[in-house]
């Protein structure tokens, strides 16, 4: 396979894991984060320490030999856990905040992570960290994609998932029905951070080079835009949005800066013209499509009946 | 002591720029209840408008200022009409506004990079009036840059004019009423659509002035829109939606920043800024002078 195509596929796959996590948080629980690049950064840097530094340390200090793949497995788990723990701390501080204040707080968190990394020479500081081992393969990424889609699907269709949707739809009513709103928001945040951590760990060991600016606010915004572009509350929409928005800039690569102009414009047009995203609120499965068609027909019938009854809707 | 005073002067000069940006932010927030992330890009455009009015058109300085401010005011209103109004008509949740604003910001910044190019531009000294050329004035034992003094004075004039406008004119009172309660003021005959255009125009004009001043002190470049993140933090710090809060937050943030970079470390300056943001949100989300959270529900 063409190395360039392969690279895009892997980056799409890695993005997909992070965006799926964000889809659980944003699309299904209704919380918006502009700081998820921060969780990716934590995953990336922890994983880089595990694969690039830990084997040597074990070798020299304890005379132990750590296989690269074992170190990599450890790296992914450690990166995910670190992101999860940090998200738990952040959640305790910020989840009680309303709407856009939560947004702003996560944004501050993401930027703070980036600036802290800028000032740690051990991980390369602002100049970045080069020549990390390349351990992520295309098959591993695609396999993990399938795994994470299945996890997300099961989570969304479980009691937990239905409760999260209830929190998104009407927080007060959910609370009245005995749903622990805070706990479900926290779960969504931690799960999404773990996903982002895994994506970060895979990325560090694929492009072999990490730098704090790769995890800036624009990155966080990109992830959120992918979720919204695909459609809130839809796993298939998330997958479609990630694929399209990772490929779109590549297709327009020759147009250099203009591709980002088109990208910005596309975001505005989608928000203004089709706010539900490409496939918001439904799933592209046979039963999902059938359900959406039924709902559409019902709306149409309802409108016709309304028109007959003297234009009342 | 001398160093302390010098830092204080620097802080006040940067704070005045932050304030011009933050007041525009806060004004739009007080009416629309969303963070207009495209504000930074409008400031950047203002700097370019001013720069080209001076260099390409060869306009006198005061006129260039006017061109920049009216250009950004028009642009901000156009953005509101084209991008935000359809969302408003649909009563979309605040998030759609934020994402649209981010999309607009990506669009504007990259349009400038694609057409004008990413190289920073410097205001030619010859085109500036003598009181704005680089160089400094000695006040007592302090060296104060002429640009810094001009920034402080122009900001003070703009903000004083804004306060007079909001407190004394009918239109200003309409803005206050709409910020307090849009539905009730609409019932009293205040056209909310007009007020929204008005705040975008005022915010845009202030953004234009801020952009030219910032460009004069430093340089004009497409990424300067990201510096306005600071003014945004200042607005949150002082209390989103509150104009005195935006001013106070800006000055405090700028002072903290200059003192941190003067006495602690330049690298940690931004960390302090974001740390303050998070601490403020956790301890007192409505900021120093903001409305209470219940009003924002």
Describe this structure in words.
The complex is a heterodimer of chains A (about 325) and B (about 300). Chain A has about 325 residues and is mainly alpha-helical. Helices cover about 75% and strands about 0% of the residues of chain A. Chain B is mainly α and about 300 residues long. Chain B has 11 helices and 2 strands. Chain B has helices at about 1-30, 40-55, 60-90, 95-115, 145-170, 170-180, 180-185, 190-215, 230-240, 245-265, 270-285, and strands at about 135-140, 140-145. Chain B has a two-stranded antiparallel ribbon with strand order 1-2. In chain B, a hairpin with a 2-residue loop joins strand 1 (about 135-140) and strand 2. In chain B, helix 1 (about 1-30) packs parallel to helix 5, helix 3 (about 60-90) crosses helix 4 and helix 9 crosses helix 10 (about 245-265). Chain B is globular, with a radius of gyration of 19 Å. Mean pLDDT of chain B is about 85; it is low at about 295. Chains A and B meet through helix 4, helix 9 and helix 11 of A and helix 3, helix 4, helix 9 and helix 11 of B.
Features:
heterodimer; A: 313 residues; mainly alpha; globular; B: 297 residues; 2 strands; 72% helix; disordered C terminus
Brief overview, please?
The complex is a heterodimer of chains A (about 325) and B (about 300). With about 325 residues, chain A is mainly alpha-helical.
What is the string of SSEs of chain A from the N terminus onward? HHHHHHHHHHHH
**Helix share, percent of chain A:** over 70%
The coarse silhouette of chain A is globular
Largest sheet of chain A: none
Rounded mean pLDDT score of chain B: 86
Average pLDDT of chain A works out at 88
Number of strands of chain A: 0
Structural class of chain B: mainly alpha
Q: Based on Cα principal axes, name the global outline of chain B.
A: globular
Distance between the termini of chain B: 47 Å
Structural class of chain A: mainly alpha
């Amino acid at each position: 396979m063409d190395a360039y195509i392969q690279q895009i596929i892997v980056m799409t796959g890695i993005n997909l894991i992070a965006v799926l996590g964000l889809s659980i948080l944003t699309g299904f629980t209704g919380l918006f984060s502009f700081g998820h690049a921060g969780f990716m950064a934590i995953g990336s840097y922890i994983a880089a320490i595990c694969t690039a530094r830990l084997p040597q340390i074990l070798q020299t200090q304890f005379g132990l030999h750590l296989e690269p793949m074992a170190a990599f497995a450890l790296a992914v788990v450690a990166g995910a856990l670190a992101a999860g723990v940090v998200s738990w701390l952040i959640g305790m501080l910020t989840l009680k905040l309303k709407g856009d204040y939560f947004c702003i707080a996560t944004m501050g968190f993401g930027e703070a992570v980036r600036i802290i990394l800028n000032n740690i020479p051990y991980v390369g500081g602002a100049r970045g960290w080069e020549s990390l081992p390349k351990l992520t393969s295309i098959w591993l990424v695609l396999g993990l994609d399938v795994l994470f889609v299945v996890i997300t699907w099961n989570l969304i269709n479980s009691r937990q998932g239905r409760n999260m949707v209830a929190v998104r739809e009407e927080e007060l009513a959910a609370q009245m029905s005995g749903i622990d709103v805070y706990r479900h928001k926290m779960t969504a945040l931690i799960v999404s951070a773990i996903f982002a951590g895994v994506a970060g760990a895979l990325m560090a060991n694929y492009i072999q080079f990490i730098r704090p600016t790769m995890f800036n606010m624009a990155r966080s915004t990109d992830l959120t835009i992918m979720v919204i572009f695909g459609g809130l509350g839809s796993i298939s929409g998330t997958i479609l949005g990630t694929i399209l928005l990772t490929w779109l800039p590549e297709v327009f690569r020759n147009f250099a800066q203009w591709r980002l102009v088109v990208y910005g414009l596309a975001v505005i047009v989608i928000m203004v013209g089709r706010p539900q995203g490409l496939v918001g609120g439904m799933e592209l499965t046979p039963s999902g499509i059938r359900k959406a068609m039924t709902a559409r027909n019902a709306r149409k019938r309802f409108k016709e009946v309304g028109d007959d009854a003297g234009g009342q809707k | 002591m001398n160093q302390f005073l010098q830092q204080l002067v620097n802080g006040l000069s940067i704070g005045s720029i932050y304030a011009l940006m933050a007041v525009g932010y806060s004004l739009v927030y007080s009416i629309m209840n969303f963070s207009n992330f495209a504000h930074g890009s409008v400031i950047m455009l203002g700097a370019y408008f001013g720069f080209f009015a001076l260099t390409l058109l060869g306009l006198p300085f005061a006129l260039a200022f006017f061109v920049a401010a009216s250009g950004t005011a028009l642009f901000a209103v156009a953005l509101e009409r084209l991008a935000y109004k359809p969302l408003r008509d649909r009563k979309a949740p605040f998030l759609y506004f934020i994402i649209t604003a981010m999309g607009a910001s990506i669009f504007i910044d990259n349009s400038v990079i694609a057409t004008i190019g990413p190289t920073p531009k410097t205001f030619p000294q010859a085109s500036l009036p003598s009181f704005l050329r680089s160089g400094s004035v000695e006040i007592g034992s302090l060296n104060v840059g002429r640009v810094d003094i001009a920034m402080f004075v122009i900001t003070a004039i703009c903000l004083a004019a804004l306060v007079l406008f909001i407190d004394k004119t009918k239109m200003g009172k309409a803005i206050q009423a709409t910020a307090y309660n849009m539905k009730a003021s609409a019932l009293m005959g205040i056209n909310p659509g007009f007020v929204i255009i008005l705040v975008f125009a005022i915010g845009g004009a202030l953004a234009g002035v801020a952009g030219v001043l910032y460009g004069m002190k430093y340089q004009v470049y497409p990424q300067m829109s990201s510096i306005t993140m600071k003014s945004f933090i200042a607005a949150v710090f002082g209390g989103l939606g509150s104009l005195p809060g935006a001013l106070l937050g800006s000055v405090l943030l700028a002072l903290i920043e200059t003192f941190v970079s003067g006495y602690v470390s330049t690298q940690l300056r931004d960390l302090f800024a974001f740390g303050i943001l998070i601490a403020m949100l956790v301890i007192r989300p409505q900021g120093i002078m903001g409305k209470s959270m219940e009003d924002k529900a």
